[in-house]
Amino acid sequence: MTGRYHAPFAERGSHAIDADIANRLLRVAMEQGGDYADLFFEYSVSGSYAYDEQILKSARRAVSMGLGVRVMKGDATGYAYCEELSLEAMQRAARTAAQIAAGGAEVTPIQVEARAIPDRYPVAIESIDVEGAAKKALLERADRAARAADPRVIRVDASLAEGVREILVANSLGHMARDRQPMMRFGVRVIADDDGNRQSGSSGGGGRVGLDYFENKSPEWHAEQAVQQALVMLDAREAPAGEMDVVLGPGDSGILLHEAVGHGLEADFNRKKTSNYSDCVGEEVASALCTVVDDASLTGSRGSINIDDEGQLPTRSVLIEHGVLRGYMQDRHSAEYFGTTPDGHGRRESFRSHPMPRMTNTMLLAGEDDPDDIIRSVQRGVYAKKFGGGQVDIANGDFVFSLTEGYLIEDGKLTAPLKGVNLIGNGPDSMRKVQMLGHDFEVSDGIWTCGKDGQSVPVGVGCPTIKISAMTVGGTQVGGA
Amino acid sequence: MSRAETDASELVDLGRSVVERARAAGADVAEASVHSGSHLSVKVRLREPELVEEAGSRALGLRVMLGQRVASTYTSDLSPAGQKLLIEDALELAKLSEPDEFAGPPEASALSGQGDWADLDTFDDAVSGILAEEALERALVGERAAFDSDPRITNSEGASFTRARGGSALVTSGGFSGSDVGTYASVVVTPVADDEGGKKRRGYHWSASRHYADLEPSAAVGQEAARRTLAQLGAKKLPTQELPVIFDKDAARSILGLFAGCVLGGSIWRKSSYLLGRVGSQVASNLVTIVDDPLVPRGPGSRAFDGEGLLSRRNLVVQNGELQTYLLDTYSGRKLGLESTASASRSPSGGISASTSNLTLQPGTVSRDALIADTAHGLYVTGMMGFGFNAVTGDFSRGASGFLIENGELAHPVSEVTISLNLDELLKRIDAVADDIDHRTSIASPTFRVSSMTLAGT
After folding, report:
1. Per the domain annotation, does A73 fall within a domain?
2. Cβ neighbours for A56, distance < 8 A, ≥ 6 positions apart
3. Cβ-Cβ contacts under 8 Å, B132 against chain A
4. What's the rounded Cα separation, in Å, for the pair B78 and B75?
5. Contact B54 A191 (CB under 8 A)
6. Under an 8 A CB cutoff, do B200 and A472 touch?
7. Of B40, B44, B97, which to mutate for an interface test with A (greatest number of A Cβ within 10 Å)?
8. Do A470 and A405 belong to one domain?
9. Which of B303, B311, B351, B272 is nearest to B103 (CA)?
10. Domain extents in chain B
11. Could you give the CA distance from residue B12 to residue B26 in angstroms, rounded to a whole number?
12. Touching check for B78 and chain A: CB below 8 Å?
């Protein structure tokens, strides 16, 4: 082991947790007659550096550590956690969680065995272990490049956030697995002022990578992107309002998939029949051009995981194949309900929260169209390049997502940049209106975080250029811009 | 001493010890915040328990300065080794930061002390005493009331009940030490109904309070949740048009929240707010008066002192449409050449920034119903979706759902449309403010009407 930060529960840590201790705790958890129990040990260290007004203004680090114990009886879950890894505190948490199954039962002996796991984020040196001066230098470079790019740039904020999350999962089925999950995220935000007209621009990226990320995308590149976006927006005009063709650029637009399709295909909503995709497996739910997968195995992507937070091994799940719904994203509980195998989508924000079906890297696969042909095919519409975020109501499938950089398409050409605008649609409806798909598939550079029930997890998205006929564009200009 | 007082004094002792050790290790300024909390959270679904979660936690935040260099650290590992790492890391990071001439605690003479603090009545022993059985029963009653109120409620995302207590202490090397305790109870019911075309409609309602006795009965919460769910059945899009928009108090609160973000000191000195340079000018119609008051008894956002130890005070933010002040902490005050408005908030991880406490748009005199009756054609918004707001420019565009208003009455429900208008213009176009505010949330507004906005639909 190298580096400064290691979980106390790691094999040679100060509070090492081995199979024996796990077996004992699981036994306590199952003592009241639970059907299933799991232990989730987590040690997470995060750091952030904020460069602002040409100085490194703040540096932060946070350590969070604890054990979450879950016991299930039928559809009911008992959950408790502790932050102290003394045997007494851990047993107390296990006993509290066990109460959900108030009965008492003979517990069959539990013998957990370590699982072999893949290596999807081979990071030689984690960012958290690199000396601070190197990270400061990266931020300085971004700051300098942004200021040099244009005299109208009046503010530059550059930030670097890093972390590592070490987990140990053991469950009453006999699985035990450990994983160490690094993360790095870099961002530049600028404000440009042209005679009182102020606009912002931003660019960022990262993933489960080390600082070698910057060999491919330099801080200067991100600075340039952010400045360009702000300058373009200085000339932005009011966006049109109403239904029109929309072309979504590759990569970031995957957020549309995430909102329009992804959440509705999380198995918990379908087990409870509260999703508008409930009971639709085998049915056509999208244009035949569309194949949508959720793939935890992309090397170094922000959404990738070696094991999920229930100790299951995630794979590539085909959700929609040529327009037909193939299946949902399962955690252990819902997989049992659907009589299928858990496919590694049980994730949680931290040891303080119970797992739920969550996305990893959600992607719409490439089509065959030339991206330029796609834009050329639109008489009048909107081209969406960068997004601020999205939201969905899974019950009815309505979703919105907000553009931070978009352009008007007139006679097959990108013309004026548009002020911030929302696109709104209905999941199945929009997916059926997918008319063209580019061959230019991209995975979005890692910046996205997904929220559900108050829990945040990092995710990835990806897609090619997409043409959707007739989406509602929420601008201010009625009848033409 | 009561249980709450004992807890609080333990937190202060821990904070003091961390400050002393950080100072001994070389910090010129050390500020420790200590948090402790415990909660019970239960959820029922289809009349059966679905989740019982119970836990307590503690955490330490440390902010240090070496000269004018700032760093902060946080840990939930309170073991001696964990605390040692917290202090070492803070000092190491401070050496990496660069001097910030504006950083630093408030003048010692400005700090408040125990004798100054108002009793805000935010703690109720009855909340801490609620056991799992009672919590489950409160949730079950809420869900049952939703199912019993109409056979069209066919499903449920469940009902939940949470009780929580929290304590925090702040100890600074500048001479401040204080603590704060609070309780919170809430009930939420989320029924589901089937609509045409395989769509489901999900509505919810909730009640929350500091004191157990102030919590709305679960049955009433469940019935209101059912009413809200059913009201959405048959929702349709509308044609694209300009029309008057009434924001009900939930939607209006969300608008006020956007404004709140733009009035905070941090967004002003960062030039990231459309309200930059606007103090003394008209930022809303003259019907709009906005107050930030941390001293509301039992208020969800109440605090006797701010995150830097200054005595809390009521701030008049907007009076009859004119912006009176930004909300400032010491740092943003110094950046802008102004005094702090005692609005500092300290995050558990140590960062300090200005925040709102209980921010209210003051109610008017007309009833909500009279406001609707006074609208010949318009949109009544009950829910909004998405993040379509640019604080730098004020550009606003979000997904909206609610009802069409025809001839002064709510007609059919509406969904899948967006409403857009720059926030500056939106607030200036407020032509009526209703009298129906409630104080469940720390940002609260009554229903109001905007004379005209762009709706994008079909």
Report:
1. yes
2. A49, A50, A136, A139, B96, B97, B98
3. 99
4. 7
5. no
6. no
7. B97
8. yes
9. B351
10. 3-229, 235-458
11. 21
12. yes
Determine the pLDDT at residue B2. Answer: 65
B213 touches chain A (CB under 8 A): no
> Do residue A156 and residue A244 come from a single domain?
no
Contact residues on chain A for B418, CB-CB shorter than 8 A = 241, 400, 422, 424, 472-474
* Measured distance CA(A165)–CA(A74) in Å, rounded: 31
- What H or E segment, with its residue span, contains residue A20? helix A19-30
Q: Confirm or reject contact between A281 and chain B (CB < 8 A).
A: no
E strand spans, A356-430: 356-357, 361-364, 380-393, 398-410, 413-418, 421-426
Q: Tell me, what's the pLDDT at A481?
A: 41
Q: Is A480 on the interface with B (CB under 8 A)?
A: no
Q: Does A473 touch chain B (CB under 8 A)?
A: yes
pLDDT at B3 over 70: no
Q: Which two tokens stand for residue A375?
A: 């834009």
Query: Can you read off the two tokens belonging to residue A279?
Result: 């009971």
Q: Which amino acid is at B130?
A: I
Would you say residue A298 lies in a domain?
yes
**Confidence at B157, pLDDT banded by 50, 70, 90:** very high
The token pair that represents A178 in the structure block? 């450990």
- End-of-domain residue from the set A200, A234, A268: A234
CA distances from A154 to B271, B326, B348 (A): 9, 21, 31
Tell me the mean pLDDT in the region B57-84: 95
Average pLDDT, consecutive stretches of 10 residues, N- to C-terminus, chain A (481 residues): 81 92 96 95 97 94 96 94 94 94 76 91 94 96 98 97 97 95 97 94 96 96 97 92 95 90 93 91 96 96 96 93 96 94 94 96 97 97 90 86 92 92 89 97 92 94 95 81 41
Residue A341 belongs to some domain of the structure: yes
**Greatest alpha-carbon span in chain B:** 73
- Measure the CA–CA gap between A444 and A464, rounded to whole angstroms: 10
Q: Are residues A213 and A255 in the same domain?
A: no
Nearest to A419 among B74, B271, B395 (CB): B395
Residues A247 and A108 reside in one and the same domain:
no
Same domain, A201 and A309: no
Q: What is the mean pLDDT of chain B?
A: 95
Fold of B3-229: PmbA/TldD fold (3.30.2290)
Q: Does residue A3 sit within a domain?
A: no
Can you give the pLDDT at residue A245? 96
Determine contact, residues B291/B317, Cβ cutoff 8 Å. Answer: yes
* Same-domain pairing of A114 and A144: yes
Q: A351 and A472: one domain?
A: yes
Among B31, B62, B85, B89, the residue to mutate for chain A (most A Cβ within 10 A)? B89
Contact B416 A272 (CB under 8 A): no
Q: Which of A99, A424, A426 sits opposite B52 (nearest CB)?
A: A99
Residues B263 and B317: their CA atoms lie apart, in Å, by: 8
- Residues B397/A475, Cβ–Cβ less than 8 Å: yes
Rounded percentage of chain B residues whose pLDDT exceeds 70: 99
**The model's pTM:** 0.94
Q: Which residues of B touch A424 (CB under 8 A)?
A: 385-386, 399, 416-418, 456
CB contact under 8 A, A56 and B74: no
- Which class for B279: exposed (0-12), middle (13-18), buried (19 or more C-beta within 10 A)? middle
A400 touches chain B (CB under 8 A): yes
DSSP labels for A172-228?
TTSEEEEEEEEEEEEEEEEEEEETTEEEEEEEEEEES--GGGGGTS-HHHHHHHHHH
Number of domains in chain A: 2
Residues of the domain holding A448? 240-478
Where a domain ends, among A187, A211, A234?
A: A234
Residues of A in contact with B231 (CB under 8 A): none
Distance from CA of B400 to the nearest CA of A (A): 9
